[in-house]
Amino acid sequence: MQLCNPSIPPFTLDKPYVDTNILRYYVVLHDPNLTTIEHSTSFFEKLKRTFGLHCYLLTINSKPRNAGDEESIEDRAEENIRQIWENSLRESYHVESELQFFAAPTMDSNVSSLNSPSVGHTRSSSVTSNLSSLPTPILHGNSTPTFPLNLSENTNNATPTEELQQASIQYGRCMTVENVGQIKSMTREFVVQSLVPFMERNIQQWNEQVASARRGLTGRLFGASRRLFGTSTRSSPQSVQNIPAQGPNVPFGLSSMTVYPFAAPEAQMRKLADYAFMLRDYKFAYTIYDTVRRDYATEKAYKYHAGTQEMMGICLLMMEQPLTNKTDVDRHFELAVQQYLSRCRSIFHATRATVIYYELLKDRQMWKDIPTALVRMTGEDSDLRSALFLEQAALCFLRANNKPMVRKYGFHLVMAGQRYGKASQRLHAFRCYEMAISVLDASSWTIAKNHVQFALGRQAFHLARLEDSVTYFSNVLKDSKQTAQQQVAHIREFLFIYKQYAAQAGFDPLKESFPNLGLPAINDRSIQVTLSNAQSNTAHREEWAAMEIELLEESIANGYISSSKRAMAVQQQDDDRIVCAVEGVLIHFKPIKIELTVALESAIIHIELYNPLQISISLSDLMLGCQYKESSKPQDQTVDTDEVMPEGKALEGSDLYEFEHFKLQKLNVVTLDPLEKKTISLAIVPGHEGSLLITGLHYTLNELVHTFKPFIKRGKRLNRSKEEQMSVVYATDHSLDILVTSPMPLLDIAFHHIPETVMSGEVVQTVLEINNKGNKGLTALRMKTSHPSFICVGRPEEMDKNIYSADVSNNTTNTIETDNHLFDPSVISIPLPENGGRGAVKPGETTLVPLWIRCDRIGKHTFKLLFSYQSDEDNAMIAHRTLRYSMQVQVITSLKINAFTRPSTTTINEYILGIEIENLQTMGQFNLAQLTASSPIWTISPLSIDLSDTQDVERKTTIPARQTTFAYYKIRRLDVATGLNSPEAWTSRALGALLNNQSDSKMEILPPIDLHMSKISFRGNDIPTETPPFNTFSLNSRMQWRQSHLETQFPSISKDKYNSLFTLYSSGDVDLTIYWNIPQMNRQGHHYIIGVNLGIQQNPFQGNSAEVINQKSRTMFEATAKERTALVNSLTRNRAIKDESPVKILVSAPDKRAHDFEKEGLLKVPICLSLMNCSWNRTSKYTLELLPWSKTDQKSTNSKAYLNVYPFHWNGSTIYTGTLNPEEKKEIDVFALFQLPGVYDINRWKLTVRTDDKEDSEAFVHQPTLPQLITAIASKE
């Protein structure tokens, strides 16, 4: 009633900016327990007649009806009524308790206020003051009044849990559902009937009296004059006043503030806009805000101006329509925040504007625009506020509409964590860094990731989370991109924290393992297990594995491994397991006594360590982790990073430690320099049969942190099924699982007299030393080499043999029967001394075998030699053992050889061979010793070298340094029939059987071939080319050339089929071998010219092509129609093989003829044309045309312009036809007539050949390319 008493001034008069024209609303409270409804109604009617309709009678039950009546006391209010208070109060109690517990003891000026350190206002104190001002509630029963916060009483020692337990006050115990409904009805009536009409009346009044005047022409001119001429109303006390600055959000150092009285036009315009905003007329409110904003700008009332800018932005975002221009909204809020910060120095209002802007953008789900507004409010004045806004900006990046911006999310979280750390909010900093590391873990940003890991480690240490701190610091240790000083600091902090963590946890850091230590880096894929006899070089593993598979398949196919062990050998190869034998006792029989020695066979594990840091690190007590199992089956590896350092019994005189089932080697200290890679080798000696699984490596870093690095190796990627091809699936790796068997032989290899550099073609004799260091006899020794044409192995009895020891030369041709099958030259069986009926090397014994090396390709070569051997006693757990050995040889140039052939003009099936040899050496003279030709049907003889003249031979077979020699030889065919027993016939039948899908069992046996060895010795000595190593080198080189040639001609045929389809030699093949020596250097060698084919080139398949093409077969050559089509095309339409004419022609005539043309007239000269069918199976039809002389040909052929001054004529028939059977020869005699003396070219003919075995066969046309000259000389008797 004080509002209506004129003698008492209103409470708003001391605030000039508050309008006294306020809405008065009167509420009469009726308590049914205190009075009757009639009394309250009568009072309400009097009040209504006095003050008008703005009154309401509200019924509230605030007291129990009878305190002594137990039935009338309600123990508990209804659920929906109680939740009205409890939901909000519980949350408020919890928040204030947390603030008091965490913030009150450490109140600091840096984090206590958003504005200035001089004002002690916090949210905790504000809410506490509001709560403490509440009246004490009325309680009944056993309830006791308790408040969650009370800074002046006993709450300083309360914990948040206790504060939650104290929130047991029950509000609204005596209220009913009707009371709550009446309160809602009163509120609704107050708003609808009183408040909204009051606001609408004020809006109409202010709009008509103030706003309309400002919007008119006069108002605009008045405003423009104030802006242009500087007219200001600041001097008027009704317009602007200065009052003392009070309140919690007043900037530091500000004592007074400028306000507009409520009667000022600017204040009324602002209230008009505010009322319109509250009534949701945002467009009208935006217009009024924009109008009054100009006045504030003119008056330089920057705080009011910033407020209107803020409200204009809010109006645009509150409108229920799409934004036409986002820039306008952001510009309003940006200007408001800038003026709050710069002009007004009010951080509180700037923060408020930013939060409102954030909430409105969030309501519209404009996530991409929120971070800009939040980051705008970050600064150095408040780390806590900046951290909060940066964290919220990060979350907005994660909730972007189109695609989450994960990288920006992580980046802003890192910045938020840094600001939280500066504000001493370590828990929040730790939380932000943890969320950021989840983003960076999947990226390759190592520097950013390590920065966050380092920050997490420090925050965890300050939060007393030593285990987490140690984990995070261990992840930073392997950072290789930091400077050396930073890396030293990282390791020092890690060791310091780990020492504290070990002391706190109560364990020994030198025994207990610290998991996942990143130093040093170990590549699990590079770990290799070898036996003690293996070389340390472990490169090219895939090539070695392929060689082992090929050697195993070849040994199984040829019966070196029994069929009963076939499955075991294949499984052993697939598992890639190292086989190690247990220790045994060797018995050495000597003339006087018997000695017993213990043979230890150990497995060596090669581990590559890498130090990624720029500082040195020290590793000590390095030892393998192993698991023993009695079963020989592969073990399933289980990763256990907490394995304790094993303790074994040290063996005297060695670095081995004995355990129950094995012995382990221990390395005391290994130092890794900066960025150094070092391979260490650790030995394990098995003691019992079974299997040993290498699980990992034990070591101690810098003599303080012991760790165990588990080894996890994956097998090859599986690519067999479609499902495996579509996904990434790896096979199980068993290379670290060592199979331990009973005593076995152990091969040790040593090569002697291996030169580092050899000449191309030079033959060097070396010695292969074979040692058996195992406990059983060694047998079935075989070797597979990567360079089969470079190596030849002899027998032990040939150790002192002089391979160039020669007999007196007779330059004859001898015949050698040779197997014509294709073979694998890379696999060599090494002969061993006879022992018990078979070749074997006893335990502890050594044998020597000669080995010759000849390299014919220039460059640096690495010989990969894979040895396979077995035990002389049967072992049920293993089929064979292997040993890898490699060596390097540099091959330099020696001779350069060029050769060519051309048909002879005197005889059919005779060729002229020209060989040009250049000495590429700058020092040393080459002497040619012998030329050997090996061929089924061809032989060679010298043409330009007189073997009977020693000086001529010396002159033409001696090649000084950087000089060249040239010589001609004649190759002629021997009188040897080929026919249906030729290699070509066998190949054709084999290809036909393949195309007809016949089984290999029905294939006919390939007969051996007779090679004719023609030798031309230049020095009087006959080099035995048919004995080792020359015959081996020759066959291996021939095989290598033949295989590469077949791969080029028939790419669609599998290599596995070559042996059953093709032969090593064809009938027309000629291989030439040139032997040489350098007397000054005592070097000898030879070069090959392989692949000279002087026969008729034709398709290997000579069957009926039409039948093969039209044949339909479901299962054919790997059972696919596509592959069958490719095979048929490669045999019938092979572009790499072009058929030649099977018929050869030779024109024989005298070179000159004397004739008396005046007396005898025409000169008649007989000419013989010889035709021969050189095919082994084709019958050919020919047509021979004798062509007349033509002037056109005379003019068009410049090279023959000096010939045929006068024409000549053929006498008799000029066309001859006939048929030639295979290898049939026919002669045709014709006559040429000459009128005048001169030089005539009688090569005027044309031969057309067709083969009659094919209807669509190609027609071959022969025409002369060289002239056949006859000189007619005029003579007189």
Automatic annotation (TrEMBL):
Domain TPPC8 second Ig-like: 761-883
Domain spans labelled TPPC8 C-terminal Ig-like: 1143-1250
Start-end of Low complexity biased regions: 124-136
Domain of life: Eukaryota
InterPro entries per record: Ig_TPPC8_1st, Ig_TPPC8_2nd, Ig_TPPC8_C, TRAPP_III_complex_Trs85
Residues covered by region (Disordered): 113-136
Gene Ontology cellular component annotations, sorted alphabetically: TRAPPIII protein complex
Ranges in coiled-coil conformation: none
TPPC8 first Ig-like domain residues: 595-758
Biased composition (Polar residues): 113-123
Protein's name according to its UniProt entry: Trafficking protein particle complex 8
